[in-house]
Specification:
12 strands; 2 domains; BirA Bifunctional Protein, domain 2; about 250 residues; SH3 type barrels; 5 helices; 5-stranded antiparallel sheet
Length: about 250
């Protein structure tokens, strides 16, 4: 079993894990915090981290994959997170919103931020840090008013509280298993399972391009490279790249 670095508080577990990874810390080592003061989300957003109610962790991975495969690890990690909560709450519907969010009943329950070493890194010096933020024992009243209709937690979904350390161990184990699958058999099996949980598949969505143009199209799911495809009413297919667009929040 992994014994993570457990912190009462920190600015960001991703920052902590990234520093440790640069120092050569092993594959699978994790950082777990009771709260974060500057939790990091995708596209420069912050992740709100109420003390002692959520899972805030980052796990160092050193997979035997070429650097070009590293972006796909966001989907691999999402599948691991979703699989872990499905085994914990089999009667609760969970799904994945491309590229990195865990959803249930139309509300966000968790998110993933993957950061990697420099493309110029070589061999054992390459790494990926998988940051996970998940609302676990968070009551609705703790969320800011603007998030109370958009967010949920395992407690809200089930009526029960959970041991966050045990939940970390469950997710850690499944994440390493899914990464091993990615390495040994390729991304195809990961993608097949991810698509079964795609909450955007067949639904209309909007996003904003770099030149501020709003595009509306219907989700077709991620392609073999993990990039999201969408088709508009004229039949034009768009390839949506992680990091240069902002997907619209579902109503």
């Amino acid at each position: 079993m992994d014994n993570p670095l457990c912190l009462t508080s920190t600015d960001s577990t991703n920052v902590d894990a990234f520093k440790l990874a640069l120092e050569g810390v092993k594959h699978g080592f994790g950082v777990l915090a009771a709260t974060q003061h500057a939790g990091k989300g995708r596209l420069g957003k912050s992740w709100i981290s109420p003390a002692d109610t959520g899972l805030y962790c980052s796990i160092i991975l050193r997979p035997a994959l070429p650097f070009t495969e590293f972006p796909k690890i966001t989907l691999t990690a999402g599948l691991a997170l979703c699989t872990a909560v499905e085994t914990l709450l089999p009667h609760v519907p969970f799904g994945l919103k491309w590229p990195n969010d865990l959803y249930s009943n139309g509300r966000k329950c968790g998110g993933i931020l993957v950061e990697s070493s420099s493309p110029t890194s070589l061999g054992e010096s390459t790494f990926v840090v998988v940051g996970i933020g998940m609302n676990v024992n968070t009551p609705l009243s703790v969320f800011p008013p603007e998030l109370q209709e958009k967010a949920t937690s395992l407690r809200i979904l089930s009526g029960n509280d959970f041991d966050i350390r045990q939940l970390y161990c469950r997710i850690h184990k499944i994440l390493l298993e899914q990464v091993d699958t990615h390495v040994s058999t390729g991304f195809g099996q990961i993608l097949k399972e991810w698509r079964k949980r795609d909450v955007l598949l067949g639904k209309e969505m909007q996003w904003v391009t770099g030149d501020k143009k709003v595009i509306t199209a219907r989700g077709m799911g991620p392609d073999a490279n993990g990039q999201l495809l969408a088709r508009d009413s004229s039949g034009k297919v768009y390839e949506i790249l992680s990091g240069d667009v902002q997907l619209a929040v579902e109503k």
